[in-house]
Amino acid sequence: MRTLVLVAANLPENFGVPLLMQVERGSSQLATVEANIFICDRLVERLLNRPDEVTATGELPSLYRTYLFDPGIPVWRRLGRVLGFVSRLGRENTHPTEYQAFSRIARMAVDATAAPGLTATDLAQACAFVVGGCDRYMFNATEQGIRRFFQNPERQAFGRVVERLEGGGTLEHDDFTLFLQYAGTLYNGDVEYHLSHLMFVMSALNDAERTIVFWRECFERLGDDPLPVAVDFLQAAVIYMYLVTDRPYDGILEPYIRKVLRDWPSGLLYRPGEERGFRRGYRDRFDMIFEDGFGVIYGHAQLAPSTRRRTMRYQQYVDSFGSDERTSNLLLENLNCFLQGGMIDESLQVLQAICQVATFWPYEGLALLQPVLGHSDPRIHRATVRVLAEVYHRHPRVTQRFLRSNGSALTEEDLREIKVRQDPRIGRRQIDELEWGHLLHFLLGLPNARQSLYAAIKALLRAESLEQAFVAVAVALGLHAEIGRQ
Predict the structure, then answer these.
(1) pLDDT tens per residue across span 323-350
(2) DSSP state of 187
(3) Cβ atoms 339, 364 nearer than 8 A
(4) pLDDT-derived band of residue 358, with 50, 70 and 90 as boundaries?
(5) More confident residue, 14 or 167
(6) Contact, 195 vs 469, CB < 8 A?
(7) Confidence label for 379 from pLDDT (cuts 50, 70 and 90)
(8) d(CA 65, CA 372)
(9) Which H/E stretch holds residue 477?
């Protein structure tokens, strides 16, 4: 089934999307997830190339309607499709005219999908689906870790933070002490970790400047030998805050990442995939590390391209890559340095970060691969092919263009591996901070969104089980078909 998904993903959209929709209706959760990822890729590409077809008339083109309003699947799965689509674009990776077209589709889809509400059966099925892929939806999550949250007597400490934020306040010194209990380790708080990020977002919505000052103070409190997970947590907090508040990126992360690359080799080489990769189904050490996706140097490169992108319409942006300008040159600079010094492990960590960048910024990400094309070290070569395979399946036209210009250093066997043989395991990828940030930004723009979100957070904190939480949050958001909002 997953082979069919990879084949369909490379067909023209009018053929590939209907075929992927048939796969999406099947029983394989991994194939379903991957089919949805590829469909959203194609719809986003179409939107960026033809935004006027959305804004020119009052109706959506049939391809969007077929996917987003599919009556042949339960409401909860339709809502999942819509949210997956909404997560792809934000104001930082579109021109204002493109975001206008995108938000029109998204608003129509959210309104139409949410209107019927979710039944008890919908909520039970959605809960089981999330649990079945929990490490995709939540950082490092396990079912056991999620359920542990509902037995954690300390979680009510978050309630006091929520009350202050709901009253218009911002985060304070002791709040980070609370967050660090869960944000400094891989094993102590699956739900609490994400709840802490949400507190940063709500604080920034109240007072962005004050919250960013607080964020800087938090980073300083980590000291000269910080916990890698805490560094990753704070990087992600910046991405969330900047996206949700629509704050233009000002390079805030660059000095911190330069310090990691220059002065903190143990942090750069921290590889939790060696600990948790086996649990996620990997047996090969390279796969355990590279597929894990954890890193402490990607944040700046994820946000830096937005400075240029949001000033250009898509075709102008694409055409601009004939120049030598590189918005992610921090990674390129250090990759070259590590390669010249024979520092293969460090180079692999940079390549892992480039893979994350290339998923959302394929033109920038692929340009950063030029120093490693045809590299003699087998691990560097394997990582390069692995990155190209993922970007090829996510962005086939962009990758083909890159390979036509730069592929002479690759063999025919490499190209077959990239296009056919390599399984990029896209369905196992954790949902990125950019995706969650886009989703939060859009949803918080809906009527009464902040009030509803606070109600949902408090319902989560009161719930005594995961299943109860699904129902309580649906009620708080006005999504329960049988109870309605209370």
Answers:
(1) 555 545 899 999 999 999 999 999 999 9
(2) S
(3) no
(4) very high
(5) 167
(6) no
(7) very high
(8) 42
(9) none
The pTM of the full predicted model, rounded to 2 decimals, is 0.93
Q: How many domains does the chain have?
A: 2
Neighbours of 76 (CB within 10 A): 21
> Amino acid identity, residue 263?
D
**Bridge-partner residues for 480, per DSSP?**
118
Distance in angstroms (rounded) separating the CA atoms of residues 161 and 169 = 9
Q: What is the pLDDT of residues 254-292, one digit of tens each?
A: 999 999 998 899 999 998 888 777 777 778 888 888 878
Query: Which stretch of 109-118, 179-188, 268-277, 423-432 has the lowest confidence by average pLDDT?
Result: 423-432
Residue 233 corresponds to which amino acid? F
Rounded CA gap, 303 and 133, in Å? 27
CB atoms within 10 A of CB 224: 7
**Pair (250, 386) in one structural domain:** yes
pLDDT > 70? residue 430: yes
CB atoms within 10 A of CB 273: 21
Average of per-residue pLDDT across 431-438: 95
In a domain? residue 468: no
In-domain check, residue 242: yes
pLDDT tens-digit map of 220-243: 999 888 889 999 999 999 999 999
- Asked which of 100, 132, 164 is the last residue of a domain, the reply is 132
Tokens encoding 268: 């750069």
Q: Say whether both 123 and 163 belong to one domain.
A: no
Q: Quick check: helix, strand or coil at residue 314?
A: helix
Nearest CA among 206, 306, 225 for reference residue 267: 225
Euclidean distance between CA atoms 320 and 7, whole angstroms: 31
Asked whether residue 229 falls in the same domain as residue 274, the answer is: yes
CA distance 322 to 312: 15
Tokens read off for 484 = 């309605």
How far apart are the C-alpha atoms of 437 and 86, rounded to whole Å?
Answer: 10
Q: Do residues 481 and 119 touch, judged by C-beta distance below 8 A?
A: yes
Identity of residue 188: N
Instruction: Find the helix packing angle between 449-462 and 156-166, rounded to 10°.
Output: 160
118: containing domain: 2-132
DSSP per-residue string spanning 201-258: HHHHHH-HHHHHHHHHHHHHHT-SS--HHHHHHHHHHHHHHHHHTTPPP--TTHHHHH
Centre a 10 Å sphere on the Cβ of residue 463 and count the other Cβ atoms it contains: 17
The pair of three-digit structure tokens given for residue 235, joined into one six-digit string: 């990087």
Report whether 234 contacts 260 (CB < 8 A). Answer: no
